[in-house]
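Worked problem 6 (solution included).
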Amino acid sequence: MWLEIAAVATIIVWYFYFWDIKPRHFPPGPKWLPFVGNLFEFLQLHKKLKYVHLVWQHWAETYGPIVGVKLGLDTIVVISDYKLASELLVLNEYEGRPDGFLFRLRAFGKRLGVVFTDGPFGLEQRKFCLKQLKLNGFGKSSMEDLIGQEVSEFSAYLASKCGKGLQDIYHTINVHVMNVLWSMIAGKRFSHTDEKLTLLLEQIHTSFCLQDMSGGVLNQVPIYRFFGAGKQIFNKHKHVVSLLNSFLKETIDEHRINLDPENINDVIDAYLLEIQQRNSENDFSFTEDQLIVTLMDLFMAGSDSTTNTISFLVEMLTQHPDVQQRAQNEIDSVCRGRDVCLADRKQLDYVEAVIMEVQRFCNVAPLTIPHRTKEKVKLDKYIIPKDTTVLVNLYSIHMDNKYWQDPETFRPERFLDSEGRVKFVDRLIPFGMGRRRCLGETLGRASVFKFVTAILKNFNLTAADTIAKKFSPIDGAILFPSPFTVQITPRMPVS
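Solution. The predicted structure is:
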C-alpha cells in the first residue's frame, strides 16, 4: 500500500519538476501551473477582456511580440508582430495542423478534411479539392456569373423590403453567399426561406461562438466535457456535428444515386468518382468520411467569414454616411447605367479602400487558424519545439499603433495614395499568408466586392438602432456582428 503511494508520489513529483516545465529558450510568458499551465489565467483574462484576441494582445504587451504559454495539454506560441509572422509563416516546418479532441470530434475520431490535416495526405486532398473547385468555376469568369445570380436575387430581396420597416439582413446575406460555393460543390442552391438551411446556419453560428482558434477548453482539457458547463458545450458541439453529418450524407447519397461518370457536374460527383477509381486500385485515401469532413470544412468556411465581412461593411457604412455617399458617387461615375463587374475594381479605388479598411478595422478573423510546428523552429532568439501550436494575432498586426498611427479610427483614406489611387499594404493580411493561406480567398474577395457594390449602387442604408451605431462584435473562432437592423431605401438610378 505504502509502496504504491510512494510510487504515485514519485511520478507526480517527476511530472511537476521534469516534464511539465518550459523548454529551454522557449518564448517568454506567464508562469505555468502543473497540469493546467496558464489556463485559469487565460479564462480570467477572457472574462475581463471579452475577446480571446485581446487576451493574447494583453500578454504581448506584457511579455513581447512572441508569447509562449501552456493551456492544459497544449503548448501554444502566439506571434503579434508582422515581421516575425512573415518570417515564420513561409517555413515548411510551420505548415502542420494541430491534433486534438475537438478537431477529431468533427471527423469521426480521425484526422480528416482539408483544414486540420497536413503532410502528404492533407496536401493531396487540398490539391484535389482546389482542382475540382476550379473545374466548376472557382476563379474563372463563370464564378462571377454565379455570384452575379446571387447578387441579383439578393438585390431583389432588398428592394422588396424597402419602406417595410427595420430589417435584419444577416441571414439573407448568409444564404446567398453560401449559394455561390454550394453551386460549385453540390450543383444546387438554397432559397433564403429554406428551413433546413436556416437551422444549419444557426447551428454553425453557435458552433463558431463556442470555439476559439487556440482550440478551446474542450481541446485543452478533454475531461472537462464530463462536468457542468463543459458537458453542455460538448453536447452542443456534438449536436452541430450530427446535424451537419446528416445533411451532408443525405446530399452525398443523392449524388451517388445519380452519378454518371461521363457527366461530372460538381465537386461531390468528382470525389465520388475518385473514391470508386481509388478503391478499385486498393487505395483507400479517398473515402466517404473524408468527403463528409471536407464538405464540412468548405461549408463552414464558406458560410460565415464572407457573410460577416459583408455585414460588418453594412454596419460601417451606416455608421459613416459620408463614406457611404463617397463610395456611391464613385460607383455612379464609373458604372453609370450598368451593373458593377469585377473588372471595375481597378477603377473603384475608394470602394476598394473601404473594403480594405473594414477588413483591417473589424478583423473578422482576429487570429489565424492554428498551425503546428512539424520540427523545432528558431524564431528570433527563441526556440519553438516540435508539435507546438502556433497562432498569429492578426488583430495586433492590424491595430499596431506604430504602423497605422490611428488604428482605432475607421479611415478608408489610409489605403489611398496622394493621387487617390488604392495602395495595397502588405500588413493587411485578412486571409493570412504563407503556405496555408486561406483556400477561399479568391471567392471571398470577389463575393465581398460584388455584394457590397450592389448594395451601394441600388440602396441607401441607415442605422436603425443603437447596436448598428456601435461596433461591438460577438467573440468566437471568428468575430460575428451583433444582430442589428437597418432602414433600406432605394436609390434613383443614374443614367
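Discussion: The longest strand covers residues 66-71.
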